[in-house]
Specification:
Blueprint (H helix, E strand, L loop, with lengths): L1 H8 L15 E4 L5 E4 L1 H15 L4 H13 L7 H10 L3 H14 L3 H15 L3 H13 L3 H14 L4 H15 L1 H12 L6 H12 L3 H14 L4 H13 L3 H8 L5 H4 L1 H14 L2 H12 L7 H13 L2
Antiparallel strand pairs: 1-2
Helix pairs in contact: 1-9, 2-3, 3-4, 3-5, 4-5, 5-6, 5-7, 6-7, 7-8, 8-9, 9-10, 10-11, 11-12, 11-13, 13-14, 13-16, 14-16, 16-17, 16-18, 17-18
């Protein structure tokens, strides 16, 4: 049971699966055009040199390590992870990252030692505890893993990997009612917003739109959310056909500089579908000003679509 749950959560914000060695890497040129590069060429000519260039910059080194994990280059990362521990003022981030590197390489003892060293310095944070639970699970101690996982949820109810691993465990053991009860329990924890979004998804699936809207409104009114919250709300409302609610709920709080481009694209799509062309054009101007090449093709398509509605 735990193996199925953990497999479903691999690829979350705290861990990524090994990439297929035959899968090319997707990159973008300065014009925003998508390029496909062989994995070995990317590794030799782009990834490893960029990793080395980031050696003295904690933020950039962290980003490059995550890129390497996501692209399946974990074997190249132990030294970089150790370097991050040495230079990063964010103890939670650095020790979690090195722990994930060790986990990705199957080095469970090293992973546990790193995670516990992080806890000794930064406390038992949600990220450190979630990954310690993964170590314990990989060793076959499922009871201890579940206990640690609940501690992780209490420490960080908005860390989706830990939250949903724990809630899904309750569903697998006791059924749908236990899953919903787990989410409600987590939603009652101080500062929680992620459990509410998963409860709202359930209500949308049951066509209980008013209940979902109330949960969304509560989260957004609190101001206690991040870009991932807006992306999830927009995606869930869009996939269930509630486009006007995307605009009503998200547009007033969306800041393209804080919340990233994905939600902005969803807002423009809703504007286009609903025929709110002027509103969409105004948002297009804001998104274009980001000067972010990976979305340029999408922006060009929206510009053409909005222009065709003159």
């Amino acid at each position: 049971m735990f193996k199925k749950i953990l497999a479903a959560l691999r690829g979350s914000k705290t861990e990524a699966p090994a990439a297929d060695a035959t899968t090319p890497i997707t990159a973008y040129d300065s014009q925003g055009r998508e390029l496909q590069i062989s994995r070995e060429e990317w590794r030799e000519k782009m990834f490893l040199p960029t990793l080395q260039q980031a050696w003295d910059d904690a933020d950039e080194l962290y980003r490059q390590i995550l890129t390497g994990i996501n692209d399946g280059f974990a074997a190249d990362l132990p030294a970089a992870g150790q370097r991050l521990v040495e230079i990063d003022a964010n103890v939670d981030r650095s020790h979690t990252t090195l722990g994930i590197v060790h986990l990705s390489n199957g080095q469970l003892d090293a992973a546990e030692a790193t995670l516990r060293a992080g806890m000794a310095k930064a406390g038992a944070t949600g990220a450190l505890l979630t990954n310690l639970a993964k170590v314990q699970f990989e060793r076959g101690d499922e009871a201890l893993s579940e206990q640690t996982l609940w501690q992780a949820v209490q420490a960080a109810p908005n860390l989706e990997a830990g939250l949903m691993w724990w809630a899904t465990t309750q569903r697998e053991k006791h059924g749908e009612a236990a899953y919903l009860a787990a989410l409600r329990t987590a939603a009652a924890l101080p500062g929680a917003w992620c459990p509410q979004l998963w409860l709202a998804r359930h209500h949308l699936e049951q066509q209980e739109v008013d209940q979902a809207r109330a949960l969304y409104a509560g989260v957004l009114a609190s101001g206690n959310f991040d870009r991932h919250a807006l992306m999830m709300i927009a995606n869930d409302l869009g996939s269930t056909g509630h486009l006007q609610l995307i605009l009503d709920l998200i547009a007033p709080v969306y800041d393209e500089h804080l919340h990233g481009p994905t939600t902005g694209l969803n807002l423009m799509r809703a504007c286009l579908e609903l025929g709110q062309i002027d509103r969409g054009r105004a948002l297009l101007v804001r998104m274009t000003a980001l000067n972010f090449p990976p979305i340029q093709q999408h922006l060009d398509q929206f510009a053409q679509a909005f222009g065709a509605n003159d």
